[in-house]
Amino acid sequence: MTHIIGAGMDRRALLKLGGAGIAALGLGPLSACSGSGSGSDTIKMLYFGQQSAATALQKKLQPQVTKLDKAMKLEVTGINGTDWNDFLAKVLTQIASGSAPDLVSVATEGLQLMASKELLVPLDSYVTKDLDSLQSYFDDIHPALVESMMYEGHLYELPDSFNAGSMFYSTDLLKKAGLEAPAESWTMDDFHTYATKIAATGPKVYAFDWVVRLWGSWTSFLYANGGNLLEEGKYTGGDWLWKSAYKNNPAAAAGRGGGWKWGQPTANSAAAVEALDYLIDLQRSNLSPSPDVGGGGTLQGLFSSGRIGMTIGGGFWAGGLHNAGMKDGSFDVQRFPTWKSNKSLFGAGGYGIFNSSEKKDLAWEIVKMMVQPESFDIMFPGNVTTPGRKSLMTAERYASTGPANWSVFYDQLDGSVPISAPPYYNALATSLNQRTTKAISSGNAKAALDGMQADFEKAVKGV
Amino acid sequence: MSTLAPPRSGHSRPPRTDPERRPRRGTRRLARREAGFGFLMISPAVLFVAVFTLAPMVASVALSFFSWDVITPPRFVGLDNFERIVGDDAVVSSFGTTLLLAFGIVVVQLVVGLGLAVLVNQRRRPAAKTFFRTTFYLPLLASTAAVSIFMGYMFDMKFGVINYYLNAVGLPSVPWLTSTWGAIVTIILIAAWQQVGFTFVMFVAALTSLPTDVLEAAAIDGAGPVRTLFGVKIPLISPTILFAAVVAMINALQLFDQPFIMTKGGPGTATTTATIVMYQTGFQNLQFGYASAIATVLLVIILAITGLQFLAARKWAFYR
Q1: So what's the ipTM on this one?
Q2: In this structure, what are the phi and psi dihedrals at residue A63, rounded to the nearest 5 degrees?
Q3: Tell me: the pLDDT tens digits for A234-259?
Q4: Of these four, A14, A139, A315, B48, which has the most CB atoms within 10 Å of its CB?
Q5: Angle at A300 between CA A371 and CA A290, to 5 degrees
């Protein structure tokens, strides 16, 4: 027992060794990010959702992966999160731990962040090489979705899904209020009339509810009011794609560039103040409750239990409300009402290939496979998002879940703009949440948006 | 004869305490063996603490002198991160919020914990004592995240059950989580409620072990329950109160779950604690060096407050 530490090692030497060990352990993570993606026979994919769904997806995709490479095993890891911001934070944490995947699910929210950090591989050469086999895909997908996956002229993802901010409504509450379904050309004045009449149907009913976040928040009103949080612009470049993949549809490709370039902050513009003031007024006049921050779980529960008349949703709400027990016909959807403009917002999703992946070519084959029409329902069972390919938007798809006016989801893409998600998206999202809740709490939209503007300006400078 | 005088007998001698006299070689060997065995026994715990507590702490302090965004290699920036903290209103404000919330939580925890302990200690039946001890300790065992989600629903302004009952008795709805002071008070109450079992159990144990002769003497001197509580019981358990206050304060200064889940640090930044800012700075804004600097400052604040608590306790903690 006396010499358990070893002959010749005194207490001082032991302490030195221990100190060095602790320092090594402590500083170890500093180089953690250099770790490679995965072992030679496994291709790792990060999926936004529960592990049970990720495992199911893995089982369904494995046979197709085996067709591409007999020795390759697909490993899909589910990452839960309240929203994309949360998911992204967890992905970055995993990268920090030295365990970067080969493929990762990335929505508009994280695309520019990951592309600007050179975490993802540009797909330009892959797309150019395989354009013939991909032509049917480009013929079938709205160019706005493809453009939203570009950054500085390069394409980083083939979008497989999207969600445009439309207005869902409870058909039961509209009926109680004596209202017809809103027309496609409805305006903000119409919306306000609807809200007032729906709220009058009962003391426990709120006309409208929303969630504090970037997508489909008060930002939908801001877009409809002709504004944005940041100056809208386009990167140059991208002709390599538009002139080849969309050569059969030059009208759709007209005006497209190399991805959305988000300029100086305009968070406290007159349009923004007016939009946020409108939401505050809705709450003051008891037409809307205090909004939650983040995911829309509470909102979904309230809407499905008939306590909310209208809310902003995308195609994902069809599956969400159906899963929450709402029957087809008990809710429907219309495009977002026109205010000073009919501009609406959307966010798209897809899979990016990690730069650190040692199996990029195989990962590309999997990306191509995942955007095939037959893969969509494997990837997204139950209408939990909107298909990126228009051919998948059929009456049959929405026959059991609703809504009846499902064609709005795709039609609304014309003239819509992706959510403003620059490389400093996370700082933007944090400020947006904080300043919006402050505005709701204080009732002073201008002061809160001045603060948001200052936050954004700091974020642009990278402070 | 003083009772403190050493015992004497005709055939016994006091033990030799001559410092010059060294123990015999065999005794030394035995002592070293015992010490070695002791080190072996505690080594798993020491290793655990070293790997999961000390190493991350050292890494965090080291990282606070770097700029690191996970993707690119760390860059040494000296004291830049600390200078930035001084000029960063959001971070400075989060420290203020942290102190406010922590102070509120600790005060509620101590006062309510002591009050409950005194009441339960007066129960004569052991079964009743066991029941209350278990009941008040239970929240401590519940997942903080689950409790926070649940409480978020309970305290929802429009649809929460708390406001439902307030309305039922004719009172107006309270913006528990959507107004600045409402959110602060609610977070304090919920965090304190969940942790109060810790102070309660410690105080019950301390009160149960009070010497009966002192309490009997107080009763003979005519002290009532209130005088006995403040004049005898509380001074006697003051070391326990000190310990509970120190541990509760250290926990409260690291508050994260409740405000993060229930209010996301809002409304605005009303409940944004230093740990939330650390999370946002590191894991959302990818500024791990700066986040580590914030963590280091928080560590220093915790050490300073703990030190102050011990210093202040010299005046009120009574050791028998």
Answers
A1: 0.78
A2: -60, -35
A3: 999 999 999 999 998 999 899 999 99
A4: A315
A5: 125
